[in-house]
Specification:
The chain is an alpha/beta fold. About 45% of the residues lie in helices and about 15% in strands. It contains 10 helices and 8 strands. A 4-stranded mixed beta sheet has the order 1-4-6-5. It has a two-stranded antiparallel ribbon with strand order 2-3. A two-stranded parallel sheet has the order 7-8. Helix 5 packs parallel to helix 8 and helix 9 packs antiparallel against helix 10. It is elongated.
């Protein structure tokens, strides 16, 4: 996020009637925002002067200070913000560079160390172990949606199953490592994200199936209640009954 303050050029749009803002001030605000990284609030020197004047009260008021709402000032003070100078940057399309600073609430001040180390705040660190755990959860949900139980079967000598166990219709045995694509340290983030997307879709479908099963269990009571209502014809009742009884 980027923040700049000033007086833009503005005029009413003849087609929509809404106010349109443009000019160097708007361009500078957009350029500052474009230079901010994920998780950062980057402010111009003008904004820092306003912070010093109205939040910290360590600098003189500016020409805009009297327009700052008191309630907003108090809320920002309660956040106990910290201003970290980030140096001078060149803004595309503007001759004059800008001295910018990063603003952090006290609760998020730790982000400053991540910025200094060059870590990407927008990147989520994906764990293959967590994806595998989610895959097993997905298998359990899908089995539950079909009124069965999934039991992970590990290929170990001390984990052999009897014939009675294998033929038990209410239990599904399987090795999760075989039921899902293999993943290792060489698996790319894109491949992991595709696997997560697939798992999330399967979990959503299983959850919908469980919801329909719950409705089907109560279909008799629902149909009786609907029959007592006037204005519902027999064909509509049949459609509702079909939906409630679907798996």
């Amino acid at each position: 996020m980027g923040v700049h303050c000033g007086t833009p050029k503005c005029e009413s749009d003849p087609s929509t009637g809404c106010m349109d803002y443009f000019g160097p001030m708007v361009i500078r605000a957009a350029r500052i925002s474009g230079n901010a990284a994920g998780g950062q609030i980057m402010c111009s020197a003008a904004v820092v002067r306003e912070i010093n004047a109205k939040i910290f009260e360590t600098g003189p008021d500016t020409e805009y200070s009297e327009f700052r709402p008191t309630q907003a000032i108090e809320v920002i003070r309660q956040m106990q913000i910290a201003v970290v100078p980030a140096g001078e940057i060149k803004l595309k399309g503007l001759e004059i560079p800008e001295v910018v600073s990063l603003v952090y609430p006290a609760a998020l001040l730790g982000r400053q160390d991540l910025d200094a180390s060059g870590s990407s705040l927008a990147r989520v660190q994906l764990s293959i172990g967590h994806v595998r755990e989610l895959a097993v959860l997905c298998l359990r949900f899908e089995a539950m949606a079909s009124s069965r139980v999934f039991c992970p079967r590990l290929e170990r000598k001390d984990c052999r199953l009897s014939d009675e166990d294998v033929v038990e219709p209410s239990i599904i045995y399987g090795d999760p490592s075989v039921l899902f694509p293999p993943m290792n340290e060489k698996t790319s983030d894109l491949e992991i994200m595709m696997q997560l997307d697939s798992l999330s879709s399967r979990l959503e479908n299983a959850a919908k199936s469980l919801t329909l099963r719950s409705l089907a269990d109560r279909s008799s009571a629902i149909m009786t209640a609907l029959e007592d209502q006037e204005g519902i014809d027999e064909q509509t009742l049949r459609v509702l009954a079909s939906l409630l009884s679907s798996r």
